[in-house]
Each structure stands twice: as C-alpha cells, then as structure tokens.
Amino acid sequence: MLTPELLEAVKGYTANLTRDVTFVVQTGEHESRAELIDFLEKFSSTSGRLSVVERDDDALRGPASFLIEAGGQSTGIVFSGIPGGHEFNSFVLAVLNNAGTPVKLDDGLKRVIEAVGEDLHFETVVSLSCHNCPDVVQTLNQFATLNPQISAEMIDGGFYSNVVDDRNVQGVPAVFLNGEPFANGKIDSATLIEKLLAKYPNVARESSGSASLPLQDVTVIGGGPAGVSSAIYAARKGFAVTIIAERFGGQVKDTMGIENLISIPETTGPEVVKGLQSHLKDYDITLKEHLRVESVEQGDIKTVTLSSGEQIRTRSVIVATGANWRELGIPGEKEYIGNGVAYCPHCDGPFFKGRDVVVVGGGNSGIEAAIDLAGIVKHVTVLEFLPELKADQVLVEKALERDNITIIKNAASQEIKATDGKVSSLVYQDRGTGEVKTLETAAVFVQIGLVPNSSFLKGVVDMSDYGEIIINEKTETSAPGIFACGDVTTVPYKQIVVALGEGSKAALSTFEYLVMHAPEVSEEAAKAA
Questions:
Q1: How far is CA 144 from CA 77, 354, 459, in A?
Q2: Which CATH superfamily is domain 334-448 in?
Q3: What does each C-alpha distance from 375 to 345, 372, 443 come to in angstroms?
Q4: 193 phi and psi, to 5 degrees?
C-alpha cells in the first residue's frame, strides 16, 4: 500500500512537523492487524516525530483501530481500519493539522466550531471506494482538532462489518452523533454543518459578532467549474474576490470518467477538481468552503448572508451554484435513503455486490451508472421513462455489450418498497400497456437529471418554471449587479466545458458593470448602507 515513491512524497509533508505524534493501536487479534501495524510503522519512518505504540484505550473500537495523539494528548481522532484508498489523504491531513499545520477552514466556521460547549462524538462509516466520504471524514477531524469536546472516528465498513449490520448501513458516508443517526447517503460537509447549526442554533449566534471581510468587489457563489472560472477571471482584473462553496468542485466531483474536456482526452472528476483548486490558489481569492448562502439582499452594495451567520458586503454577485440530483418524488424514496435508495453508484455500489439493483434514468448518468455497477453487482435493470434512451450512443452500445444489464424503456416508477427497513422492490408502470409490474431489487440508484440550486434567490431574480435563473447573452440576470452562469441558469447543454466558458463570460460582464458603476461612497458609508 505504501510504496517507496509514496513514502518519499510523505516525507515532504512530515519534514516540518512541530509536535510529536503517536499512533496508539489497540491490542488484541484481528486478521488485518499486522497489516495495520506495518502501515503505521512505514508511515512513521518518514519523520522522527512519528511513532507507534500498542496499548488498550477505551476510545478504541478494536484491534484494527488506532488513535492519534499529539504532544502526549489525545486528539479525539480515531481510524477504525487502514486509511488507504480515498481515506489516505484524510489520515495525512489529520496528522499534519495536529502537528503544526493550521486547519484550513473558514475563520467564521472555525469560530462556530470552537463555540460548541458540549461533548460531541461523531462516527462515520465509509467504504474506501467512496470518493465523497473523505470530505466528511476530513471535516469532522478538523472539528475535533479545533475543539477538545468533539471527537471523530472513521469506521471502514469492510473491517467492521458488525457495525454495518447492527446499524443497517446501506449507504456511505453514514454519520452517527453520540450513537444516534445524524446524516447518511447523499451528504457532504455543508450538509453536516447545516445539521449541526440546526441542532445547536445558539452556536452560530454566539460566534457571529466577530470581524468580517472588508467590502468585496465580486462575490462568487458556487465552487464548481463555472464558479472557479469566474473567480479566476475576476481576480485577474485586480478585484477583491470571495468564492463561497458548499462543496468545492460540485457535481464534477461525482463524475468518474470524463472524455470530452477538450485538450484532455481522458480524466476523472476528482482530477479536474484538483486542477481547479490548484489554479484558484494562484490568485488572491478568499475561499469560504462548506457554507451555504441563506440570502442575497439587493442594493448598490449587496449583502450575502451565510449559514454561519456571517454577512459579506459586495459590489456584485456571480451565482454559479449548479444543480443537485433530481429526486423521483415517489413513495419510499426519501424514507429509504441510505437503506437501498442511493444517488452515487461509485459510493454505494460496493454494498450491493452480487445482488440485483435498479438504475432509474436512461440519460448519460444513468447508463454510466449501470455500466459501473455491472462490474460489481449481479444484475442491473435500467428504467427509462421515455420510449427511447437519452444517453450518447457510445454509452448505450457499451451497456448493451454487458450480459448483466437489462434496459426497460417507457417505464414510470411508482413506488419503492422495503422489507425490514431495507429496499426490496420497485413498482413501475409500463406506459405503453398500462400494466403495473414489480421488480425485486436490493437497491434503487436514482439518476434522472438535476435540479438548479437557486431557491435562495427566489424573489431576487427572475427564474424559469424549472427554477433556472434567466440570463441574457452576457449572463446578466433581472437584478442589476447580479450575474449567473453554469448549470443553475437557462443556458442549455449542461457540460463542464460550457460551464467554464460561461463562468469566464460572467466575470467579464461583471468587470464591465463594475467599471460603469464605480463606487462613489467611502468604506464607512458603505458599511452604513
């Protein structure tokens, strides 16, 4: 797992540790315990400040669990399992954050977490193939680093299958708070923070009185391709720019295969997101991550209110919030999210190895999901509402080549049923004959398109019947000084390359607006406004 090349790269990160870090491994027997010890000892060989000890500790789940101590004190961070795969970065970041590297979390969010005044123990069940899980694990580890009353444990469901069974986990990440279900399935760091603020509303109020940003020229809402593109173009004009991102990378993070990003023949969503992050760091741009925008107040100086309670005053706004997975809206869907209803085949597919599953949706995302799942599960049935598939022909041909994929067209999903709390069947109607049929299935993966993330702007800008923000050819909305780009708008063809272009266009239009509306008030007057 830890190759010489990887260990050499790790040395570059651990060279500047300022605190001693100890990995405390629980004693006992486990079939993978020797592998865990070997992993930690090899990692520890990269720095004299790292060490491994074996002893009993009440905070540890079993012989394949370890605790991170820093400076002789518990950090509250536990890994149950070997943090390889996508979780290796979570492990490295936890070590660095507790050995001298500052936690890279928005200052306003830090104040919120530091204000929590009671014991919170988070447990996150993951699979190492889940590319969404590290965001959640890393965020909770950062919470534990910032506040000694918060602890966080990553649990690899493959190592601790008893946890998966006892808690009926059928989707990851599955987060538990103080032993009770907190969030699962279709979640990200922003969702966690929103749920935490909803559970402890006083925390946001207690931390909201601190210093805020100075007046911004451009505030970009959204951290996907359109948002990053607009932020970079705006920063290159010399403007003070802030970008607010619930989840940096947006939907691109969930895309495994990308073959139509011109000049890059083949890549993945996570690689594209890594490139966006790297490019953004080249400019003086303030990034506020894991936060939602609650409202935008119009005016010459606009006020953007965040879920943390912080307010940002800005001369202009670029909305690039993208879209979320569209839901079926049928009985059983919301009730069984995380118990067989899923939206991420890459994350949750491994839980249904050797079983029959259903994918609802015959567009590109649906057919891609079916192809991916076919390599894991016993059989995939694709249900498409229309008489013909909407996916690209090259994808359809790949799906038809698989002998464990069945495609049913002209099918209207009606209900998802469960047995003992877990999905067991899907009821659909043949739209041609009217006959109602039932498919036995262990899971339903919903892949029917996207819904614009625009609800926070209702009454502020004009929208289409579908909730898309209406823009003109210059990305201008109906509200002066508010621009929009990407999947959240009425621009057709929701593609990464289109979003990148629309983002740059929005920044150029914003530049024109700001030049034509040069501020005529002082900073003090702006504050009063």
A1: 7, 37, 39
A2: FAD/NAD(P)-binding domain (3.50.50.60)
A3: 11, 6, 15
A4: -65, -40
Domain 4-207 has CATH 3.40.30.80: yes
Q: What kind of architecture, by CATH, is found in domain 216-324+451-528? A: 3-Layer(bba) Sandwich (3.50)
Give 375-395 as a DSSP string: TTSSEEEEEESSSS--S-HHH
> Could you please report the per-residue DSSP string of 304-344?
EEETTS-EEEEEEEEE---EEEPP---TTTGGGBTTTEES-
pLDDT in tens, the chain (529 residues): 789 999 999 999 999 999 999 999 999 999 999 999 999 999 999 999 999 999 999 999 999 999 999 999 999 999 999 999 889 999 999 999 999 999 988 888 888 899 888 999 999 999 887 777 898 999 999 999 999 999 999 999 989 999 998 998 877 889 999 999 998 766 777 788 888 888 877 766 555 555 578 999 999 999 999 999 999 999 999 999 999 999 899 888 877 678 889 999 999 888 999 999 999 999 999 999 988 999 999 999 999 999 888 899 999 999 999 998 889 999 999 888 878 998 888 777 888 999 999 999 999 989 999 999 999 999 999 999 999 999 999 999 999 999 999 999 999 999 999 998 889 999 999 999 999 999 999 999 999 988 999 999 999 999 999 999 999 999 999 999 999 999 999 998 888 999 999 999 999 999 999 999 876 544 444 454 4
Q: How far apart are CA 373 and CA 345, in angstroms?
A: 7
